[in-house]
Amino acid sequence: MIPFTAFYCDDAQTSQWLDHECLLALIRFGERTPAATDPRVNRIALPELGGTATAEVWLGARPVQTGIVDGVRYADGGEILFLQLTMDEEAPAALSPLTATAYRRLFAAARARDYRYFLRIWNYFPDINREYDGLERYRAFCVGRHSAFLAELADLETRLPAASAVGARGPGLRLCALAGREAGIQIENPRQVSAFRYPRRYGPQSPSFSRAVLRSWGERDFQLYISGTASVVGHASQHPEPMTQLDETLANLEAVLDQARQRARVPLELALLRVYSRLDLDPAPLRQRIARTFGAHVPLLFLHADICRRELLVEIEGLAVGAAL
Ligand code: 3EB
Asked: In degrees to the nearest 10, what's the CA dihedral of 313, 252, 95, 55?
């Protein structure tokens, strides 16, 4: 059985979901959204493009147990664990050790509830492209993340979760994750060098993530967690313009979906896409272009966000679902 469904709703309508015993996570966006203490509620300090106020609802299939261990807030859906952790940053130049500590706490919290496999991780922190002591903060983050994975994983190239690393407006390092009791299947993109094998010119430590993770939840139930996907071919960023970057990004998403479809026993369909744009653009032309590729029925959310390479202007992540009819 698929352990949760994800969908967008009007942010003004979210209170009804907070009363739901199966709510696994409620993701709210915007700089002004108040900080929440409810372990299921995650706030991402990024403004939405286009003037709408949208929230993302992850509705579990079973009643959820919530709690907090060592600062890690969690919502346990029985087969899937949602976790979130916010770390205050005292020194912006010390992101690497802070990231390593945050990841170790995340891993320990999941293990304490008997979840050993991270399927998907979201990373948000401010000034992602800013340099301290000659090292960009995104690159420092990659160093810290890698050292935590090195201690956690027996094999660093086959068990990496899907991920996004995005520059947020709010302070602190904010991690949000999904963990399972069984491993997913790592999916890579044949159009791209695997991120964990990027050459050194992109930073002292290559980024620890897979392009997607395919998880089977039974004979014919699948979820595909798709990492932040950008206009990268091989290992190099492509195109100076947002629309051409978008086209390349869509080609990458199609390639990832194609790889996953070869491994799933049922058709995979996109359930939603989250689009990050570095520029404060009108989302309408982006929406049109995405609809041409994936159809007008796929729910889209557009956020104004910095992306981890300076020249990248668009990044798209998503969830696809396959279920027997
Ligand atoms: C890329 O393909 C674009 O470091 O976790 C996308 C998704 C990117 C996740 C991460 C980085 C990350 O390299 C950047």
From this structure: 70
